[in-house]
Amino acid sequence: MKKIVKIFICMLFALIIVTGCTKKDDSNISKSKSKGKCDVFECIKKIKTNNTLEEVNEIIGFDGEYIGKEAKVYYWQLTDDTGVQVQFFDSGNCRIDIDYKNQTIANKKNDFSKFDQIKKKLNKGESLKYDEFVKIIGGVEGTLDSKYEGTLSYYWVNKDGGYLTAQFDSETLECKVASGMF
Q: Which of 3, 29, 37, 73 could be cross-linked to 61 through a Cys-Cys bond (beta carbons 3.0 to 4.6 Å apart)?
């Protein structure tokens, strides 16, 4: 019996060593090294909607690939799973969108159960600022995933894969529209 217990303890110890005992990182942000000067989440914050192609190339750190057919659209592949897309308009403005996997921003604190409060405020035309919006859904800042002239679009993902997206006025941070699947 002692021999079986010793073997069991040794196997358990070996299993612990092989699997490791590291602290789990709750951020879930991809740790892949970006090919650019910034990761996808930093890049969208740095790029302004009035930047030129040359300025965006400088911010990211390398030239984007032209992918437009009828529009002036460029793409910067930062990692295997992330990238930045910018569409340039004749007006001198641009639209910035980022690509990433939803699970990289999933957060168990995102609570969409009170979405009806948001919907009621928006339907009544009441003011709903970004900070109040964040407070209603659990206090987690959204991921800026798109911006264009006058609009910032944020995205939230919960632990179950549900998502919520909302657009805010870039000056006043008033919510314009919100939707999701949860």
A: 37
Q: In which element (H, E) is residue 58 found?
A: helix 53-60
Give pTM, 2 decimals.
0.81
Provide the 3-class DSSP secondary structure of residue 106: strand
Q: How many CB atoms lie within 10 A of CB 63?
A: 13
pLDDT in tens, the chain (182 residues): 555 544 445 444 443 443 333 333 334 444 579 999 999 999 999 999 999 999 999 999 999 999 999 899 999 999 999 999 999 999 999 999 999 999 999 999 999 999 999 999 999 999 999 999 999 999 999 999 999 999 999 999 999 999 999 999 999 999 999 999 98
User: CA 7, CA 93: separation in Å to the nearest integer?
Assistant: 68
Selection from 104, 51, 100, 103 nearest residue 79 by Cα: 100
Strand duo 94-99 + 143-148: pairing: antiparallel
Give the Cβ contact number of residue 155 at 10 Å.
18
Pairwise CA distance, residues 99 & 82, whole Å: 5
